[in-house]
Design goal:
By secondary structure, the chain is an all-alpha fold. 79% of the residues lie in helices and 0% in strands. It starts with a helix and ends with a helix.
Length: 437
């Protein structure tokens, strides 16, 4: 339980409300990018007539940008400031989004992957800067609660991204299903493909222009100064100190598996739901749109649960709550695999309620006590987002290659998120019992 003295410390100190709000807005902005993109795996698969594995390369490029840029971002903000890192991140974010213009004109899959990679290099800068910046905006005793509060606005951006994907992209794509597109002649297929790519382009260009506006606003507003006075890099010494912290090492591992679980559950809910609804006799396009609606339900639950869990952290230790939610994720994922049908889909939606607390809580626990090494520590935790790059293609391979009749390919593929939740439960237990959070 939190101590009475901790509960009286303000989560957001007086005088920095506007900077806190502006930096917190970045959490919503990268949530938008993440969740407008997850449905694009299925969309690009149909537009370019690819396999599930090939379509999942969207996630490989998207989350690969996080991995590639996290450590350079940490070096940059160590030498300069958190605000500088956020401005660079917004610039790269806008650049990647606007690159959808030439990518759509070229009509090839590769340029879209490059645009996603550049966009998420920007998100890597943003997350490497904004997460520890929020932790530093006040007393260390309320740091995890403060980060959970800021992170609670991330799913609001995610909801907008999901709605945009559903209403502005998926619902407006050509109505032909995968099989019907295969029957088109070359000229007709190219015409349909280019029209669909123009639809995909629109929302990304709009968010790119909006990001440029936010960049200017943050550039003009005075932000709290970093507490750290020494901007010398000292990379080797910082890394040695971090690697000697068991709580931090284990936190990076847990974060890798958490992000993998999150992206798999939110990406392949569409394939899972489509398989359920088409088995009931629903046309494929209608099944895809309805499955995206269930993805939105999952995000609504995620957002609601994050606010509830942020409140509960005032009274419950982070490790204990993390363990309980991971166990809930394990039980629900078992239902997704072995129950199947609509009940399995409902359980897959419910998994999002269990995931809500995990990212910011693992992040806050792992960085606790890292002091001046927090910037490099943040980079390691953002690099852990690479789990979202490598695990969805593995899940897609299971879907493409599964042939056993006792489980559908989509249901069998959720053994990977199940393993992830087991790892998170072990970390939560160790935080509570071994590291005594």
């Amino acid at each position: 339980m939190a101590t009475p003295s901790e509960s009286r410390i303000p989560v957001i100190p007086a005088g920095i409300v506007l900077p806190f709000v502006l930096i917190t807005s970045c959490f919503a902005l990268w949530g938008f990018a993440n969740d407008i993109t997850n449905p694009m795996v299925a969309a690009f698969r149909k537009i370019f007539l690819m396999s599930n594995f090939q379509g999942s390369l969207v996630q490989f490029a998207f989350y690969g940008g996080y991995f590639a840029m996290a450590f350079p971002a940490a070096l940059f903000i160590k030498k300069y400031t958190y605000k500088s890192g956020i401005l660079v991140g917004l610039g790269l974010y806008a650049t990647g989004a606007l690159l959808f213009i030439p990518a759509s004109w070229l009509g090839m899959f590769g340029p879209f992957l490059a645009a996603y990679f550049i966009l998420t290099c920007g998100l890597s800068f943003l997350e490497t800067s904004a997460n520890p910046y929020i932790l530093a905006m006040g007393d260390e005793a309320t740091a995890t609660r403060r980060l959970n509060l800021a992170q609670a606005f991330n799913p609001l951006g995610s909801l907008l991204g999901m709605w945009t994907a559903k209403e502005m992209i998926v619902a407006r794509l050509d109505a032909r299903d995968y099989a019907a597109r295969q029957e088109l002649g070359t000229e007709a297929f190219e015409a349909v493909k280019m029209a669909d790519l123009a639809i995909v382009r629109g929302p990304y260009v709009a968010i790119g222009l909006f990001i440029l506006v936010i960049l200017v606003v943050i550039a003009l507003v005075k932000m709290p100064q970093d507490q750290e006075k020494d901007h010398r890099l000292n990379i080797g010494a910082s890394l040695r100190r971090l690697l000697n912290l068991q709580r931090y090492r284990e936190g990076v591992i847990a974060q890798t598996f958490y992000v993998g679980a999150q992206i798999m559950c939110w990406t392949f809910i569409i394939q899972y739901g489509t398989a359920v609804f088409t088995a009931e006799g629903m046309p494929e396009r209608e099944a895809e749109v309805l499955s995206q609606q269930f993805n939105i339900y999952a995000m609504v639950l995620f957002a609601t649960s994050r606010f509830i869990c942020t409140f509960l952290l005032k009274y419950v230790r982070p490790g204990a709550l993390l363990t309980a939610l991971a166990l809930g994720g394990i039980l629900l994922t078992l239902g997704v695999i072995f129950v199947g049908g609509r009940p399995g889909l409902y359980m897959l939606v419910a998994v999002s309620g269990c995931m809500s607390l995990m990212f910011p809580t693992i992040y806050g626990i792992a960085l606790h006590g890292t002091g001046d090494d927090a910037k490099f520590g943040a980079a390691g935790l953002i690099m852990a987002i690479f789990g979202g790059s490598i695990m969805p293609p593995l899940q897609a391979l299971i879907i493409d290659s599964w042939s056993a009749s006792f489980l559908t390919p989509e249901a069998a593929s959720f053994v990977l998120p199940l393993i992830c939740f087991v790892v998170i439960a072990i970390y939560g237990y160790r935080v509570y019992r071994v590291h005594a959070d």
